[in-house]
Backbone:
């Protein structure tokens, strides 16, 4: 009983939130890693692409809510999601035409493109704030919980409750679907294969007659979709605030690098590694340990390694450790 | 078929190709020889659109193709292989071959979802073609191996196989024979002759192996220090004073040194 109670507390405060957060990071990191693998630069504007796609989704959600469209127990935002994706796709394709293409044709070095992406980041950042403002916005509706803590206690008779927010469940399910689609696309379709070919060996891909502009466009479309999905899921789960997406850039890059830049599977694994580390290091273990350890060993302090205020430091530490000891990431990426 | 006029490619102050002028006859198997660093590979790279020339002109069947990107040249029927074998390392050998005719219907996002039937037909045809090529190259057993993990010589074969996946007009082979064993080298030679005679491919072949050149190529062009030194049959080339000085002679000298 003690053990079960401990485990439920652990699930409630660590496992469930970390899985949801990990899914969001994984989706974000997938976008970063695809751009890195195919366009060969680290896209600093990715966080703001997420914000932009999420913003369009929020606006469409509000419009739908105001004319009485709803999705039953599910958040209306899911209905608005395709519009958000379309908006983000348009945005990145336009950016590519107007900005990145110029540097691609000049065969600029990746460092230059990184700086250029920072410029794009500031632009998008500004656009989002001009349109929706810098403040936190509320757009979530529908059923709040899948399982409530009290219901869980009644059901199981345990002292500890397990609450699963519907946004957490939606996050995991949506992320799983998106990832499955992505891998099917990359491994099974001709378009996906030409993307992989281009990522494996650009020169050879070109000499095999693969049209680079098409590969690049398809990559941007997929990345915009992934970014919007990640942004909306994060917004639903936490809240929508433009600045938080900028902050997310750090854990997202940490995830992509931990997994090995350019490696999609690695990005997913990296997302969960970072999410679990962050949640576990900032969680106060007193309660769980109280159940699990014999009374004599019961901790008196909070047993919290780091205050949640410093959660981004965790990504930072992971980043440094990985870059020091295994720069190619857990799965071999393209960076050396 | 291909005309190169006063082509220059400079890397900073270094003139890798320094005013090369040459012509490749339609239907020929032209050999391109020259000492290491003569600029042969660089010349290929410029013709195939991998590098942009510093100055000069390349025409194909009268059409100016200078500076066109490689994927457009591919669709005009101009193919090349790499001296250092390139491969899509995360894909199997068969998939590597199947990538070759790039820009197919399957590569359009729309058709990925709505042209499934046509794509499936196309894939089936490609697969059959790839298997045929693999068999021809005697590497059928490698079909499902990751291309990044096969041996250097086998990668070379894959390079050659790639040019057999489509109906090319002209193929530039950069030392396909290097690192391939004798028997296989003969097979490759046979393949080149057959593609030339049956399918009308024009070839330009870089090789250091004079036996191989002698068996296949007429005419032979000799380059040194970025310039074309001489052109003619192999025997004429071998007798050419400048060529002996710049290229063949060094080989003889080395041999003398070894024997001494
Ligand atoms: N990207 C580059 N940057 C600077 N120098 C280069 C570059 N590529 C080639 N070179 C130089 O140009 C010269 C010609 O090189 P190239 O590869 O064309 O020679 P090659 O005739 O193919 O020789 P080999 O028989 O050894 O293959 C060499 O001296 C090489 O160092
Ligand atoms: Mg060479």
Residues:
């Amino acid at each position: 009983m003690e053990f079960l109670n401990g485990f439920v507390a652990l699930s409630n405060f660590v496992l469930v939130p970390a899985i949801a957060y990990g899914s969001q990071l994984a989706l974000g990191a997938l976008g970063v890693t695809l751009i890195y693998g195919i366009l060969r630069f680290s896209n600093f504007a990715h966080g703001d692409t997420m914000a932009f796609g999420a913003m369009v989704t929020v606006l469409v959600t509000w419009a739908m809510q105001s004319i009485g469209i709803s999705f039953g127990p599910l958040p209306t935002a899911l209905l608005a999601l395709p519009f958000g994706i379309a908006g983000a796709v348009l945005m990145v394709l336009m950016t590519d035409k107007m900005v990145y293409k110029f540097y691609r044709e000049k065969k600029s070095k990746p460092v230059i493109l990184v700086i250029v992406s920072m410029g794009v980041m500031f632009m998008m950042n500004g656009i989002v704030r001009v349109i929706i403002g810098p403040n936190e916005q509320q757009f979530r509706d529908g059923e709040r919980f899948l399982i409530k803590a009290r219901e869980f206690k009644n059901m199981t008779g345990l002292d500890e409750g397990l609450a699963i927010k519907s946004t957490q469940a939606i996050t995991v399910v949506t992320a799983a679907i998106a990832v499955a689609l992505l891998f099917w696309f990359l491994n099974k379709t001709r378009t996906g294969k030409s993307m992989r070919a281009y990522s494996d060996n650009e020169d050879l891909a070109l000499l095999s007659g693969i049209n680079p502009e098409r590969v690049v466009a398809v990559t941007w479309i997929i990345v915009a979709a992934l970014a919007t999905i990640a942004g909306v899921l994060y917004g639903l789960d936490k809240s929508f605030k433009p600045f938080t997406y900028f902050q997310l850039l750090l854990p997202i890059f940490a995830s992509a690098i931990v997994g090995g830049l350019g490696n999609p599977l690695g990005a997913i694994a990296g997302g969960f590694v970072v999410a679990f580390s962050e949640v576990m290091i900032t969680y106060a273990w007193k309660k769980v340990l109280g159940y699990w350890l014999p009374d004599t060993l019961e901790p008196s302090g909070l047993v919290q390694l780091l205050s949640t205020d410093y959660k981004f430091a965790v990504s930072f530490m992971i980043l440094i450790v990985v870059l020091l000891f295994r720069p190619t990431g857990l799965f071999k990426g393209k960076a050396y | 078929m291909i005309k190169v006029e006063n082509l220059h490619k400079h890397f900073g102050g270094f003139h890798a190709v320094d005013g090369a002028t040459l012509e490749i006859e339609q239907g020929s198997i032209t050999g391109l020889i020259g000492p290491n660093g003569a600029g042969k590979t660089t010349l290929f790279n410029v013709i195939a659109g991998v590098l942009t020339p510093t100055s000069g002109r390349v025409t194909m069947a009268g059409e100016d193709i200078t500076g066109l990107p490689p994927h457009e040249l591919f669709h005009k029927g101009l193919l090349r292989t790499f001296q250092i074998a390139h491969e899509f390392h995360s894909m199997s050998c068969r998939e590597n071959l199947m990538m070759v005719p790039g820009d197919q219907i399957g590569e359009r996002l729309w058709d990925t979802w709505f042209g499934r039937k046509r794509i499936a037909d196309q894939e089936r045809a490609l697969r059959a073609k790839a298997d045929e090529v693999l068999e021809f190259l005697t590497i059928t057993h490698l079909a499902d191996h990751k291309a990044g993990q096969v041996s250097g010589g086998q990668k070379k074969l894959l390079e050659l196989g790639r040019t057999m996946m489509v109906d090319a007009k002209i193929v530039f082979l950069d030392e396909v024979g290097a690192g391939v064993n004798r028997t296989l080298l003969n097979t490759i030679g046979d393949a080149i002759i057959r593609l030339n005679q049956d399918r009308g491919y024009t070839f330009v072949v870089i090789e250091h192996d004079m036996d191989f050149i002698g068996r296949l190529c007429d005419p032979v062009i000799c380059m040194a220090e970025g310039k074309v030194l001489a052109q003619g049959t192999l025997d004429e080339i071998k007798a050419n004073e400048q060529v002996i000085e710049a290229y063949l002679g060094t080989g003889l000298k080395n041999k003398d040194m070894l024997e001494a």
